[in-house]
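Problem 12. The chain below contains 162 residues. Write out its predicted structure in token notation.
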Amino acid sequence: MSAHSAKTAASWIILTLIIMQFIPLERINPPEDNPLTAPADIVVILKKSCYDCHSYQTKWPAPAYIAPISWAANAKVAAGRRALNFSRWRDRDSKAAALRMHAIRKTVFDGTIHEQLYYSWKPLSRLTEEERIVLLKWVDNYGREQQTGFKNSGNTLQDKSF
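Solution.
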């Protein structure tokens, strides 16, 4: 390959990358219409580890504004919000609520890192073992509340036993 053709190819690549920056994406955080209501410690854990992809409180990092990385980030967040969205949590369908909690339990219990690239880039967002235990207890408690209609206060010895 001659020096002239290499320069031409490089110019075309740079021009293509520049043009790609003008392709609009839906990188928005709509208002929350039915957000999750949960104990404060649960919300803190979920915000740390899950909300960037599973809520309308996404903190878009700088690379999320540079194509083609922005396309991948946008697609991952959109898919995460479709799968589970803490900003649209409450609905009247108890079957949907049970499915959401089952999905959370499975992911947390299995200890799978379903988005390894995200957690490699933001290692402090990974759940600690203690946080996993707290979330699993919350999920189990949430399921019992839905079945019985009674809320576990967590204030009595009986409420704290799992």
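Discussion. The first helix runs from residue 3 to 20. Students who got a different answer should revisit the alignment rule from Section 12.3.
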